[in-house]
Amino acid sequence: MIQDTIPCVQSPTHNTCITNTHTHRNTHHTTPHTQVGVVQTAYANGTSTTYLTNTLGVAVGCTPTGVKYLHHAAVEFDVGVYFEANGHGTVLFSSRLLAKLHEVGVW
Question: In the beta sheet, which residues pair with residue 93?
């Protein structure tokens, strides 16, 4: 029997927080000095910025709107995350982090 469900629409800001919570918890166990960062635009929800910085201790950067700006800032981190206003998101992993994960047998 299929139960009734309520559709859940998540904003790019919500997706960013979910993605970073998972990424932060998993990378810090295997590679504790990993620099995880989120890049947002001025349209991001201020509460998400507070959660990311105060709860997770994640660096948050702000750029003008547009993938070319978000991507350029995200590559500065070992794990860089950004979501566009349309909900499309990207998680970037640095080659340094991938090598470290391979070294410890995770990747």
Answer: 79
Lateral strand order in the sheet of 36-41? 59-63, 36-41, 79-83, 89-93
Q: Please give the full DSSP string across 95-107, using - where no structure is assigned.
A: HHHHHHHHHTT--
Using CA atoms, how far apart are residues 75 and 20, in angstroms rounded to an integer? 15
Q: How many CB atoms lie within 10 A of CB 21?
A: 15
Q: What is the pLDDT of residues 24-54, one digit of tens each?
A: 666 666 677 888 889 998 888 788 888 888 9
Q: Does the reported pTM lie above 0.90?
A: no
Question: Are residues 39 and 70 in contact, defined by beta-carbon separation less than 8 angstroms?
Answer: yes
Q: Which two tokens stand for residue 29?
A: 């166990």
Nearest residue to 24 (alpha-carbon basis) of 11, 39, 37: 37
Q: Output the CA–CA distances (angstroms, integers) from residue 86 to 13, 43, 44, 59, 93, in the order listed.
A: 11, 12, 12, 23, 22
Give the start-to-end residue ranges of the domains of the chain: 16-103
